[in-house]
Amino acid sequence: MIDIVPIGTVRGGRTEAEDDAWGTIETDIVLDAARVRPESTVGLADYSHVVVVFHMHKVAEVSVETGARHPRERTDWPKSGILAQPARSRPNRIGVTTVELLSVDGLKLRVRGLDAIDGTPVLDIKPYISGFAPRGTIREPNWVKELMARYW
Amino acid sequence: MIDIVPIGTVRGGRTEAEDDAWGTIETDIVLDAARVRPESTVGLADYSHVVVVFHMHKVAEVSVETGARHPRERTDWPKSGILAQPARSRPNRIGVTTVELLSVDGLKLRVRGLDAIDGTPVLDIKPYISGFAPRGTIREPNWVKELMARYW
User: Which pTM value belongs to this model?
Assistant: First the structure.
């Protein structure tokens, strides 16, 4: 068991998770002064994007899938393992999303396109570094391209 | 406080963290049958890459930086906030890396380019989905391009 103490909280945006249309939503990430110092964000504004690691705390633990299911209950999409799909109800309920960084004001970040609801605990913020993009040719199934078509 | 129970462990590869040259290293990720069922990886082989979320357990908690410092103690690089650099000694010690998926055999995955050492607890595996790549133009400071030059 690993104890994780959030470093901040998502403020604003949606109050309930929805499947699609996250792209234009702007939210604040308010960092906790008990966890990080104001200097922790020095230089962050030099990056256009950040990677937000968050805990999808409103997903009930009993709803977590540990096997396979049809993504979004779409039976026309293949039954897929929970680790092979972008579902919320996954073990440990950790979300990782790269978002546009709009502004940095001390311990408050403004971002666009974060698919996390108001009140979501934030576990880490990383700068988006292009050198960490996938190396080599990318391959993914067609159904996930359909799923993403309206996501942003 | 959030309790996270790892879903698996990194096996093989380096036994100590190093700064550079992770690109050719192959490791296994052995998932824990007490946490996920064999069906959890169904369809994963349809993706070329996976995103591995892991806990950098060998980083001593006392060494975690909560403010700013020079990346890799390079005083020719700007003093940067811990959230504005790709350092291990960050709050919550969570790593997120996209790696090539070489094979899937039930609860055992073989990957290339994972910058985590033997024994590292794995918190989540996500498929790499191109639709989650950053939207818009990417901007990053020059020093981080220098840092990444020998990373893979």
Answer: 0.98
Domain boundaries, chain A: 8-148
Does A143 reach chain B within 8 Å, measured CB to CB? no
Q: Mind listing the pLDDT tens digit for each residue in B4-32?
A: 999 999 999 999 999 999 999 999 999 99
Number of neighbouring beta carbons within 10 Å of residue B55: 19
DSSP code at position A34: T
Q: Taking CB atoms and an 8 Å limit, are B129 and A141 in contact across chains?
A: no
Size of interface A-B (CB pairs under 8 A): 263
Query: Measured between CB atoms, does B46 come within 8 Å of chain A?
Result: yes
Mind listing the pLDDT tens digit for each residue in A102-130?
Answer: 999 999 999 999 999 999 999 999 999 99
Closest CA–CA distance from residue B139 to any residue of chain A (Å): 5
ipTM of this predicted complex? 0.98
Domain boundaries A8-148, corresponding CATH code: 2.40.30.70
